[in-house]
Each structure stands twice: as C-alpha cells, then as structure tokens.
Amino acid sequence: MSAAAGTLAPLDVMRVREDFPILSRQIRGRALVYLDNGASAQRPRAVIDAESDYYEQHHANVHRGVHTLSQEATDLFEAAREKLRRFLNARSTREIVFVRGTTEAINLVAQAWGRPRLEAGDEIVITWLEHHANIVPWQQVCQQTGAVLKVVPIDRRGVVDFDAYLAMLGPRTRMVAIAHVSNALGTVLPVERFIAAARERGIATLLDGAQAVPHQRVDVQALGCDFYAFSGHKLYGPTGIGVLYGREAQLEAMPPWQGGGDMILTVSFQGTTYNALPYKFEAGTPNIAGAIALGVAVDYVESIGLERIARHEADLLAYATGRLDAVEGLTIIGTAPDKASLVSFIVEGVHPHDLGTILDAEGVAIRTGHHCAMPVMDFFDVPATARASFAFYNTHAEIDALVEALGHAREMLG
Amino acid sequence: MDLADLYRDVIVDHNKRPRNFGRLEHPNRSAEGHNPLCGDRLHIFLDVEDDVIRDVRFEGRGCAISTASASLMTEAVKGKRLADVRHLFEEVHDMLTRQDAPVPEDLGKLAALSGVREFPARVKCASLCWHTLNAALIRDAAPVTTE
Predict the structure, then answer these.
(1) By the CB < 8 Å criterion, does A359 face chain B?
(2) Which fold has domain B3-145?
(3) N or C: which end of chain B has fewer CB atoms below 10 A?
C-alpha cells in the first residue's frame, strides 16, 4: 500500500448509508441488514435519480434521429461509455461493449470469438471455482466445435493450483477464461500471473470480473487480458446492464454475434456491411437508461474511492471472519489468504436454507444455496452454503446482528 | 408470519431424528427428487404390494423442512392404500399452496407443515418428497425436480 493510501481519510459509513434509500427499510419489523451484495448490491440515490431523470428529460432512441432528444440520449449514452472506458483504463471506447451483464458478455465471447475459430481438440482452460456463467457458455461452444474444456483444480482453502494451471497450458490451449474473484469462496486470483503465463504462449484470456470490480481497481491494460466482463448491478448500478471489455484487435477480428439494427452500416438483400466497434456487437436498441445510470454508479464509486472501499471492506472481512470463526459448529468454506469481502460458511445441524429463513426473520439478508457454482459445492462435499457478502456501506454492528441471528438459528434447530 | 409457526416442535424433531431414514433392501418402486434451487436431493424407496404401501424409506440431505416433510410423509403413507395416498397428496398439496384453505382434520401430524404456506420460498422444500413419491408410484423413470 502506497504512502498516499496510508493517509487516506477513513470512510464515513453512516454518512454513506444515507445515500442508499433501501438501507433504511424495515424487514419484518427489523432494520434491514443487507449482506447479500455478492448477489446484487443496492443503489445509491444518484443512480436511481439518473434513470428517472433520463426518462423524464432526455429519452429517445440512440444513434438514429436528428432531433434534439435523440442527440441528447446519444450523448449521454456515449458519455457513459467513456466513463466506463476510464474506469477500466481501456485504450478506446471502441473496446467497451454494453451488454446485459457478465453472463451475456461471456456468451458473446464464446460464440463470436470461440465458435468460428475453435477446432476439434482445441482446449479452453477454466478453474474449478468458476460461476456457472463461466462454465456453461464454454461447454456449449465445446459441443459445437469439438473443443475440450480443461479445469484447473483448487485446494481445500479454495486457492487455484497455479502449477497445475501451468502444466495444463499446451499447444492446443486457445483460451484461458477465469474468475478474477470467486463468488462462492471469495478467493482473489493472482490473475496477473495467470494472464502473463497465457500471453507468453499466445493464448487468449478472459476474466470474469463480476465479483472484482466493486472491490478493487481494475486496469485492463495493466492486466493485459483480452476480455474482461462484469455486471452493473454488483457495482451499485442497474440490473440488465454490464460491460464487455475486449482488446480492439480481438473484437475487430470477431464476427457480430447478433444481427439487427445499429450493428450495420448498410443492408441490402444481397448482403450487409457491419458497423464499426463497438456497435457491431450492440444489435438493437440498447439499455440506454441502464448504461447512463451505470456511468453514474461509476462516478459514485470513484467519489468514494476504490482504495477507501477496499480498506473498509478488508476491515469488515477481518471482523466477520473472526466473529464467525468463534461461532460454535460453524465452518468457513473458502480460506484463501487473499479474499474479497465475503464469507461462505456452513453451520453444523442447520441447513443453509433454514439459516436463510431464520436470519430473514431478523432482517438479515444473506445468500444461501449453491451460488451458481455447483462444482465448488461438490468439491467441498456440501449441498449448499450460507454466504454473507459485504459492501462498503456495511458495518460491524451488522456483522454482530448476523452472528446473533446465527445463534438463534442454532437454538431453534440445533 | 412467525418462525415458530414454520419450525414447530414436530418439524424440529423429525429433522433431528428422521423416521424411516435409509434404503430399502428390495424396493419395487423408487424415485429421485431434486431441488436445484438449494441443491437438495431425495431418494424414496417403496415396497408396494396389492396396491398398498407395505414399506417406505427415504434417503438424502436437505433442509429441516424437506427432511421433516419426508419423514412425516413416510409415517403417514406406510400401510396405506394407493388411492388413499393419492387423496393425501392432494390434501397436502392444497395445505401447502392455498393460503386460505382450512387444514383438513384428518391430516394428523402432517398438519404441522401448514406454517410453510406463509413462507412461499419454502413450499418447494416441503413438497419435494410428495412429488418424488408420486413419481415412484407412477413409475416415472425421470428424476423429479421442483423447477
């Protein structure tokens, strides 16, 4: 940590909480304790207002009309793209494709990058801790092309085996597609090393950044990846909007994956010429309000500061880990040395699903289930886990409420 | 909506000490159920003779509601004629899903599950075993899922 970060003023959490209207809600007569940020974070007032302001003042279709509203909508939409470019430190807005979310971004790459060039026997490398969204699209393209999916193992802490990864990279490896941060375990992967090893061998790389962008600064140029995917709604933005960053040379060489309006230059019944980047990959009317509001979410996060957010969340993680570890019968699943601010756990004698219901009765919202990472559940031989995932607006008092509610669950069912 | 209404003593007891838990040596009907939402799996084994359930056991792991429901179900259907089991299935189904329906008096201990209907997210937990039983009785080879 740099000296500048060392002098950073701490986050005023109680002030920040006032920016999020939903945090003052009551659930079943109790103050909401929202610890399900890994599934979807909440929105600050500025993001909510940005959407309604757009609809009240500026809405028309983008890239189409000559009238004032169409121009305003287009300007706002493209200004949002520029914010996202800056946020990821991409070289150009041509590298920022608006999509519905991480899932669509990965499907786009699997189909538009993978399908035309993968041949039978080619290999795609993923890891054991991937979200289903970074497994299934690759399985599908493997079925379509005869390519083979290779899975890098993890250890009992939830750390990806780097040596096994290196050994897996071979002459037929075409793509390395890995999570930046595990949604089920919290593991932060040392992706720089993974990417460097792939690049040395001329292998393309994709990072699933859904769980990373809310917690740490992401610089796609420094990372050196070919693709980076994330969703707006985990970054305090709207649902149904996300970003695919793609290195320009890669995107340029890829065919469009959906056809329609906005992605063309000319259409005749003899043939069609495609639009320039990034519009080639944005067929149809996009989620304009969502993109604009995501830009505002990025502004909001930057105004707080990712370094400050990271520090507060590291404190929450340390506090939660200590308190949960002390709960009798509780086992933390995922104990990697470098973790994002989430804790997956099981409680002896109490199924995660029951925990979810009992905690909800006390206003505590956590995720329970397989977290769309069934292979991870199989690896740890559990059907499901409970997961508390923290945002910068969470407090020690909320973690105390979680621990207290866990005690009640054990009393009720233990 | 009260937690005590969901986790009644009978439910807690059947979760901790499920009855008829394990496999049958020689079942002539069986089926597997799966709730993809929570990852719960359930296997039901039946010995059916002359349209009567002579024996029933179940295996699997799930939440308190699904375990207790399966345990209570095995107690309720053992020794019953299939026609009566089908009737019971309908009654339990109504109890779990119809907020306004009165709980039939002949349900016995199964009535302990009536609190589930106040928790819509948990109805599938309670009904999984019944759908699985149904599949076993109609000899449906495909595994049952709640989705």
Answers:
(1) no
(2) Sufe protein. Chain: A (3.90.1010)
(3) C
